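Writing this down once: the sequence line spells out the residues, with the fold written below as integer tokens. I am pasting one below:
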Amino acid sequence: MVDFQQKDKYDFEDLLRIMEILRAPDGCMWDREQDHQSIRRNFIEETYEVCEAIDEQDAEHLKEELGDVLLQVVFHTQMEKEKGVFDIGDVADGVCKKLIFRHPHIFGSVEVGSSEEILRNWDALKRVEKHQETDTSALDSVARSLPGLIRAEKLQKKAAKVGFDWENVQGAFDKVGEETTELQQAMDGNGDVEEELGDLLFAVVNVARHLKVDPERALEKTCDKFISRFASMERQARAEDKTLSDLPLEALDALWNKAKETE
């Protein structure tokens, strides 16, 4: 039993201490075995669970999931603290300095007249801070670990800032048709299917951006809609004492269309 005071309410310092205990030589075997790579996916999953709590507008759930993300921050930081590289104070110091530097209209003498101007200044200061001397380096700074739709949108937004963009949504939409044709040609043996499919998805994201629609959220809603309709199909099949796998494709299509009509 470790020497740790039980409390009715713990604080951030307690969280840091608990992580130190878990990672100590006589601590938890599993926690001691982990490294940045082994828990990398945990961070991604916990972040998405925060987003789900936000969408649910559930404050209690959000509090819990933010705690899980905070745990990941502390976990990764503890690993570096053990190596003498940095600690949580260094992490806080870095983000404080970043916020001060990127808000000269608050912590400096810069005057702004709109949120759009603030964002333009933010981007310019970010490029200075990260030594992005070319427009390409700004594109290259977009994390490759982002979901594909989000990364594509961020790349397109950065390119648009230097004028490389369609004049309107129709130009972007016409490009979808062009890329669809090229994908069909690749499917017929004239081209790389994976490459052309990627081009088509990239073009669709461009349309979403011009329509001011979040492509990731749009796809999430479609996935939810698909599940809802699929559930309706299954209920219809069960009402006839059948399972979906018992039915031919034509019957499944009929159930799908009925689910769509009654949605």
